[in-house]
Amino acid sequence: MSKILAIANQKGGVGKTTTAVNLAAALAELGQRVLLADLDPQGNATMGSGIEKRTALPTVYQILLNQVSVRDARMRSEPGHFDVIPANRELAGAEIDLVNLEQRDLRLKVALAQVADDYDFILMDCPPTLNLLTVNAFAAAETVLIPMQCEYYALEGLTDLVATIKKVKQRLNPTIQIEGLLRVMFDPRSTLAQQVSEQIKQHFGDKVYDTVIPRNVRLAEAPSHGLPVLAYDRQCKGAKAYIELAEETLKRAGIHARGEK
């Protein structure tokens, strides 16, 4: 059985997709079988995995409408060594198309259950809104990884996200938990970043990952080449940080890495 992990934050530009793509690649590097589901109509995780979103068919949109299975839709990220359920702009219509359908909140959960034995990890890159796509991800997920910048407004958005997870726990998925809070784009020279980091650790304790993702130019450049950072520059600080995150993720799950690919 796979561990199903939603990567979510309703605030945009917090490194959510960067984390989804690079954690998938880092887990694959450590010998894990990984599926990355792109649930954002922008399709950035699809592109960042080396897949052309404009020609990627079928997508998660057809899966949610029960037109195809995950096995029919998944594609291989050759540079990342993991599988991808792609997304593109047609997914923007899913909110309208799903609204009158039965079990609209549970469609992704049912679809992913069919491939649960094919993977060690299923990661879901959620859109930066708390919409029906995000609810589907939370209904399917065991845990939620929250990437966040250490700045004032991030704390405000975090409160809303935690409240949403609690509502999903009450109504749809009683076992969902917060996997952890990941500090991203971190600049240790910033006094504010240090202060917010301390506040997060005081409030959430061991839910905060030890791993910190630094600001890194190579990490920012990699998506424009359609590559995870490990395939773009595996020696840069960003690549090393995501390997550390993958190792910490395995440790939290009680899994031993099967060796590097």
Tags for this model:
261 residues; alpha/beta; Rossmann fold; 8-stranded mixed sheet
Can you walk through the features of this model?
The chain has 261 residues and is of the alpha/beta class. It contains twelve helices and eight strands. Strands 3-4-2-5-1-6-7-8 form an eight-stranded mixed beta sheet, with helices on both faces. Helix 1 (16-29) crosses helix 12 (237-253). It starts with a strand and ends in an 8-residue tail after the last helix.
CATH T-level fold name: Rossmann fold
**What is the CATH C level class, in words?**
Alpha Beta
Query: How many helices in DSSP terms?
Result: 12
Spatial arrangement of strands, main beta sheet: 3-4-2-5-1-6-7-8
- Count of spatially separate domains: 1
Head-to-tail CA distance between termini? 22 Å
What's the mean pLDDT score?
93
Shape-level CATH architecture: 3-Layer(aba) Sandwich
Fourth-level CATH superfamily: P-loop containing nucleotide triphosphate hydrolases
The low-pLDDT segments are none
Principal-axis shape = globular
